[in-house]
């Protein structure tokens, strides 16, 4: 988590496990696919954490 980033401002912590991005299960996503899904969010992004 980069200090000052949107993730840090949203109180995400290192070690949090993202299990869904905008309601889409991340089990079969590659790291790159997950990154692209997050980067392509226009305004709101919903992450489900474990």
From TrEMBL:
PROSITE patterns: PDZ (PS50106). Residues 1-50 form the PDZ domain. It is found in: Cytoplasm. Pfam families: PDZ. Keywords: Cytoplasm, LIM domain, Metal-binding, Zinc. The keyword Cytoplasm applies. Signal peptide: none annotated. GO terms for cellular component: cytoplasm. This is LIM domain binding 3.
């Amino acid at each position: 988590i980069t200090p000052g980033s949107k993730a840090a401002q949203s109180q995400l912590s290192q070690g949090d496990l993202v299990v869904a991005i905008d309601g889409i299960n991340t089990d079969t996503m590659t790291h790159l696919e997950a990154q692209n899904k997050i980067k392509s969010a226009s305004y709101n992004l919903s992450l489900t954490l474990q």
